[in-house]
Amino acid sequence: MPLEANGAILTSTGLTPAGPLDRWAALVVRERKTRFSGGALSSLWAFVTPVAWIGIVVLAFQYLGRSVPIHAPMALFVASGILPYAVFRQTISSLMRSVIAYRYLSYIQPVGPADILVASAILELMNTIILSVVLFGGILLALAAPLPADPLRVILGLALAWALGTGFGHLAATLGQWSDTLSRAIPLALRPMFWLSGVFFTATELGGAVQAALWWNPLFHTIEILREGFFLGYTSPISDAWYPLAVALGCYLASVPVGRVLRARNAARHRI
C-alpha cells in the first residue's frame, strides 16, 4: 500500500516523486483498500443500501396509494430521486470520515488535508459512476423501460450532486475538525434534505410559495435536472445547473480560510 515519506511516495518499487497526482493516486488506492477491506461483501454493501431505500419507498408509495407524477415506472422514478441524494450524502460522509481517519498523514510532508479530501472526492466520483450504471442499468433491464431521453442531462444531474457533496463536504470536514460536537451535528443537520429535495415529489406538484421556498435547496435542482434528462416530456420549473454549482464552489472557497485558521491554531498548540 503506498505511503508518503520525506516528499516521496513509498511503493513496492521504491521512492517515486510525490507530485499532486502521485499523492492523490496513492491516497485513492489506500482509501479504496481500507473501505472495501471486507472483499466482495464490502463492495456489495455499497449497492445494497440505495437498493434497500428504493424498495422501502416503493412499498410505502404502494401502501399509501401514492401515484407517480411522471409517466414512468415507480421504481425508476424513486431511483431518480434517491440516487442523487445518496451521492450527495455519501460524498459528504466520505470526506468527513477520511480527513479524521487519515489525520496522521497530514503530519507527513508533503501530504496535507487538501490531498486527503481530493482523493476521497475522486474515489466517490468513481463510485458514483459505477453505482449509477449498475443501478439504473439494472432497473431499465428489469422493467424493460426506455432509455433516458437526454443522457447528458442525466450525467449533469449526477455530476452536480457529486460536486455539491464535494464542496459541502470540504466545508463540513474542515468545520468538523474544530470539535467532535460539530462533527456529529453536521450529519444530523443534513437529514431534512432527504425530505426537502424532491426525492418523493417533483417541483411541478408544488404550490408557488412552497416551490419558491424549496428553490433555495441546491440538491432539489440536481434531482430535477436528472429527471428532465431521464423522462421524456418532463420539464422542471426550477432546474438551474448554475445554482448548485455556485453553492458547491462557495462552500469550497469558504473552507479555505477556515482551514488556514485551523492549521494556525494547531501550529500554535504544538509550539506550546
Low-confidence stretches: 1-17
Shape: globular
Query: Helix fraction?
Result: over 70%
Topology, number of strands: 3
The computed structural class is mainly alpha
Give the topology string: H per helix, E per strand. Answer: EEEHHHHHHHHHH
How does the SSE layout of this entry go?
Elements: E1 3-5, E2 8-11, E3 14-17, H1 20-35, H2 40-64, H3 74-101, H4 113-143, H5 151-176, H6 180-190, H7 193-196, H8 208-214, H9 218-230, H10 242-271
Antiparallel strand pairs: 1-2, 2-3
Helix pairs in contact: 1-4, 2-3, 3-4, 3-5, 3-9, 4-5, 5-6, 5-9, 5-10, 9-10
Main attributes of the structure:
globular, mainly alpha, 3-stranded antiparallel sheet
Would you write up a description of this structure?
The protein has one domain. Helix content is about 70%, strand content about 5%. Strand 1 and strand 2 form a beta hairpin. Helix 5 packs antiparallel against helix 9 and helix 5 packs parallel to helix 10. The N terminus is likely disordered.
Summarize it.
With 272 residues, this protein is mainly α. The protein has helices at residues 20-35, 40-64, 74-101, 113-143, 151-176, 180-190, 193-196, 208-214, 218-230, 242-271; strands at residues 3-5, 8-11, 14-17.
